[in-house]
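Sharing a chain and its predicted structure for anyone who wants a worked example. Both blocks are below, sequence first, tokens second.
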Amino acid sequence: QVQLVESRGGLVQAGGSLRLSCVASGFTFSTYTMGWFRQAPGKEREFVAASWSGARTYHADSVKGRFTISRDNAKNTVYLQMNSLKPEDTAVYSCAAAPSFYRDYMKAIGYDYWGQGTQVTVSS
């Protein structure tokens, strides 16, 4: 059974920090691209960041310089460190996994596996 389990999000004041984690099982984690997406109420799902199996990363412009994706293949875990949080970062954050050959890492369609999502709320 494939599982992606995100850590609890939380409530944080603007300017604060949170770290999300996502523990994967049931597939060969080290060969997969891992991504983080988010979806706010009334908005479409938005790409946040991706980490390739070789640990190269890409971050959306909206979070670049504030968020950092990382992974620990030995622990089958991907992280999202979120700093300088803004109210507009409020969303349900989900981790996802895509085969390493998937090139359109900003598009959710190519991600095979998804976590349940975790709520992050940033107060002003």
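Comments welcome. The two ends are 40 Å apart (CA to CA).
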